[in-house]
Known about the structure:
Largest sheet: 2 strands, parallel
Oligomer: single chain
Number of helices: 5
Amino acid sequence: xxxxxxxxxxxxxxxxxxxxxxxxxxxxxxxxxxxxxxxxxxxxxxxxxxxxxxxxxxxxxxxxxxxxxxxxxxxxxxxxxxxxxxxxxxxxxxxxxxxxxxxxxxxxxxxxxxxxxxxxxxxxxxxxxxxxxxxxxxxxxxxxxxxxxxxxxxxxxxxxxxxxx
Length: 165
């Protein structure tokens, strides 16, 4: 009797789980596809435009340093030791300044890139939330890889259409 009761309870719980599972509507978002979208490309172009002036100034400074270094090596035999040391120190100071500016540019670029990525993620989240509410999704998964058995489960294209351009 005890075994029969246990078996009945087990079967009942399995049936309830199956019914609950069948009623759950699940969607999936491909993050890789989102990050390769025109909206993400637009953020990248914006960043390149924003930092192009500083990058050009850095390249100009590098050319100046290279030219001064070449001139110093040509003239080194003709220069007095004090003059040579003075120009070498000035050149080294310029190199230090160049390296600092290059590092600052890289740090600023990475910070802005992260900010733009976060803004895109917020827009994606809002689009997904809107789609989920409108179409009655119980669960939407984000990821880079997943097996999607049904066509209607992948809502990435809907999310991309919902993103502002």
